[in-house]
Amino acid sequence: xxFDELAExxxxxxxxxxxxxxxxxxxxxxxxxxxxxxxxDPIPLSLCASxxxxxxxFMDAMKSYRERIASLAEQVAEFxxxxxxxxKEAAEKAKAKTATPAKTPAKxxxxxxxxxxxxxxxxxLGDLF
Length: 129
Description:
The protein is an alpha+beta fold and 129 residues long. The protein has two helices and three strands; from the N terminus they run αβββα.
């Protein structure tokens, strides 16, 4: 069982390192898969439990971890596919805009404002007062 589950994990990764250490009465196990070239490494798995707990639950934890990282890898692959399609579409739109520049109607020059008439001085009203 142990090696069957480990073999499933190894199918998708170039190398998987497992580090075991004791933390008091508890055992710590770190699982560090290394992705094949061109892929990113998944998040490592770190488990800490008593040996009795690991006897019961380690294989289920490994299976769950393997399924989870496979699901995450599928999500990342889908995201990358969509991102590439969006980038291609944006590049095509930019290329289309530069190929056919929009024509704007030429503005007619506004006529110069007519000169204002000089104000005539008011009549001398000094006699009225």
